[in-house]
């Protein structure tokens, strides 16, 4: 359990470093809802994506939609999350989880499974962080019906905006090796589109919660 907790802490520290990193991001895709940029990952042979957008809801409400808990809202609105289960709770804030994803990108990308240790953390300024990275777990051997993918330090910061209680800055980092034998062109076009979809579905989910 120690080892899982340490990996989760290390992932959170890594995200804090990414958050402070000013230079080196390549401008990507901008919609009215989110701007996505990226740079080559130092963790694996792929990209680290950074996404930023402001949502018209309190940080707590945004957090309620994205927090990684069993039976949480995310399986309902996030089209990339088919199933989410907690394999082992390490502490109140840390757990090992398995996420499965449906086939994507006109079925070019077959269903995937990810096993991660996830840490939830709250900062003094009210920012909430969910950080994750891949682990192996004895209760979760690879399954033949899924391709095992690997998340490297990734997650979301829900950041309160001073004087704007009904707005939240959501800063997210995605760093995923999808595994399998996918052409790099597919991977490179999948992620930016996927991330903008994540934000627009989240915005809809937050609005629905408000209603």
TrEMBL record:
Matches recorded under InterPro entries: StARD5/6 (IPR043556), START-like_dom_sf (IPR023393), START_lipid-bd_dom (IPR002913)
Role noted for this protein: May be involved in the intracellular transport of sterols or other lipids. May bind cholesterol or other sterols.
Organism: Upupa epops
Gene from which this protein is expressed: Stard5
GO BP terms: cholesterol import
Residue span(s) of domain START: 1-211
A GO MF term: cholesterol transfer activity
UniProt name for this protein: STAR5 protein
Alphabetic keyword roster: Lipid transport, Lipid-binding, Transport
Keyword Transport appears in the UniProt entry: yes
SMART domains: START
UniProt keyword Transport present: yes
